[in-house]
């Protein structure tokens, strides 16, 4: 949460230069507070595992969050009981007249397919387009990030020579945006994917900014300059044993799968994995939730639609 001080205190300027969020008394006294409405578009087949990971990532904040779970109606779930979906999830038709402060779109195990061949692609496109006027900021994860980057900015994915599988160290290219507030100069994050996106196309797009990445992973974190879209190509939300479960699953299937990099001590799958990304997960989701949603979204949530037309004039005070 922000530090509240008297307006025009000289320390405010210095702290702002150090990327520390300080709220003056005038703004604090006029700030209206309500629960945040967050929509989780869960595209993963193991719904319960993914929703638990996201809930855990969002929980390290004093902000009150009302989470709505959404599944795609155009694809019948094979790994989740229909009764479970009917009880805990909603469909797009059931929420399309509502507004949300934030939306999270997860990854999906369909990355080797062209986007247009994914059976729920048309529905996902409809959701992403709807989000332009009904959601203040959207957080895309892994394949979801590739899908969002392709749909909104025309940057397609490409297949890598080998699967990117493990926990990787990343460099921060610009630590000024508050999305990375509190990050160390280098940080670790899991990846599990066969595809990547063009760094050159991201850098050439005037509406996008590459915030973090590495030689091994390529782009790791990208944002649109209006903060409407946050793209994370790794899995900061992963549990300590997620990569292990993926590894064991593929071994049982007889697939040619390498041991996840930088994960097991001495690359020995018999040993307990080393967790290097827990603090990054907390910071990444909490920073997005606070600075890109809570501090910017309108108190009257329906005004999100109106604010869409004002974004180009004012990118916000906390970019």
Automatic annotation (TrEMBL):
<dbReference type="Pfam" id="PF04204">
    <property type="entry name" value="HTS"/>
</dbReference>
<dbReference type="GO" id="GO:0004414">
    <property type="term" value="F:homoserine O-acetyltransferase activity"/>
</dbReference>
<feature type="active site" description="Acyl-thioester intermediate">
    <location>
        <position position="142"/>
    </location>
</feature>
<feature type="site" description="Important for substrate specificity">
    <location>
        <position position="192"/>
    </location>
</feature>
<feature type="active site" description="Proton acceptor">
    <location>
        <position position="235"/>
    </location>
</feature>
<keyword id="KW-0963">Cytoplasm</keyword>
<dbReference type="InterPro" id="IPR005697">
    <property type="entry name" value="HST_MetA"/>
</dbReference>
<dbReference type="InterPro" id="IPR033752">
    <property type="entry name" value="MetA_family"/>
</dbReference>
<dbReference type="InterPro" id="IPR029062">
    <property type="entry name" value="Class_I_gatase-like"/>
</dbReference>
<dbReference type="GO" id="GO:0008899">
    <property type="term" value="F:homoserine O-succinyltransferase activity"/>
</dbReference>
<keyword id="KW-0808">Transferase</keyword>
<dbReference type="GO" id="GO:0005737">
    <property type="term" value="C:cytoplasm"/>
</dbReference>
<comment type="pathway">
    <text>Amino-acid biosynthesis; L-methionine biosynthesis via de novo pathway; O-acetyl-L-homoserine from L-homoserine: step 1/1.</text>
</comment>
<comment type="function">
    <text>Transfers an acetyl group from acetyl-CoA to L-homoserine, forming acetyl-L-homoserine.</text>
</comment>
<comment type="similarity">
    <text>Belongs to the MetA family.</text>
</comment>
<feature type="active site">
    <location>
        <position position="237"/>
    </location>
</feature>
<keyword id="KW-0012">Acyltransferase</keyword>
<feature type="binding site">
    <location>
        <position position="163"/>
    </location>
    <ligand>
        <name>substrate</name>
    </ligand>
</feature>
<feature type="site" description="Important for acyl-CoA specificity">
    <location>
        <position position="111"/>
    </location>
</feature>
<keyword id="KW-0486">Methionine biosynthesis</keyword>
<feature type="binding site">
    <location>
        <position position="249"/>
    </location>
    <ligand>
        <name>substrate</name>
    </ligand>
</feature>
<protein>
    <recommendedName>
        <fullName>Homoserine O-acetyltransferase</fullName>
        <ecNumber>2.3.1.31</ecNumber>
    </recommendedName>
</protein>
<feature type="binding site">
    <location>
        <position position="192"/>
    </location>
    <ligand>
        <name>substrate</name>
    </ligand>
</feature>
<dbReference type="GO" id="GO:0019281">
    <property type="term" value="P:L-methionine biosynthetic process from homoserine via O-succinyl-L-homoserine and cystathionine"/>
</dbReference>
<keyword id="KW-0028">Amino-acid biosynthesis</keyword>
């Amino acid at each position: 949460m922000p530090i509240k001080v008297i307006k025009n205190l000289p320390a405010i300027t210095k702290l702002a230069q150090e990327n520390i969020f300080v709220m003056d008394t005038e703004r604090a006294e006029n700030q209206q507070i309500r629960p945040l409405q967050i929509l989780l578009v869960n595209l993963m087949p193991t719904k319960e595992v993914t929703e638990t990971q996201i809930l855990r990532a969002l929980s390290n904040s004093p902000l009150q969050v009302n989470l709505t779970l959404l599944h795609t109606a155009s694809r019948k779930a094979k790994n989740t009981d229909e009764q479970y979906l009917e009880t805990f999830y909603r469909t797009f038709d059931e929420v399309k007249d509502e507004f949300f402060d934030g939306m999270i779109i997860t990854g999906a195990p369909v990355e080797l397919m062209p986007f247009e061949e994914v059976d729920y692609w048309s529905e996902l496109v409809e959701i992403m387009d709807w989000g332009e006027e009904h959601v203040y900021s959207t957080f895309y994860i892994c394949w979801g990030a590739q899908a969002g980057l392709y749909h909104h900015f025309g940057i397609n994915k490409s297949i890598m020579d080998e699967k990117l599988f493990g926990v990787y160290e990343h460099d921060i290219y610009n630590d000024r945006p508050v999305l990375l507030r509190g990050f160390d100069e280098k940080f670790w994050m899991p990846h599990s994917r066969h595809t990547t996106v063009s760094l050159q196309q991201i850098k050439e797009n005037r509406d996008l900014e590459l915030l973090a990445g590495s030689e091994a992973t390529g782009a790791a974190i990208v944002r649109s300059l209006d903060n409407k879209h946050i793209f994370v190509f790794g899995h900061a939300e992963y549990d300590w044993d997620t990569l292990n479960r993926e590894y064991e699953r593929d071994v049982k299937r007889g697939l040619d799968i390498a041991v996840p990099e930088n994960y097991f001590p001495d690359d020995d799958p018999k040993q307990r994995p080393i967790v290097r990304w827990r603090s990054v997960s907390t910071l990444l989701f909490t920073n997005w939730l606070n600075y890109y949603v809570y501090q910017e979204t309108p108190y009257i949530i329906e005004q999100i639609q109106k604010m869409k037309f004002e974004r180009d004039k004012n990118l916000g005070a906390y970019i």
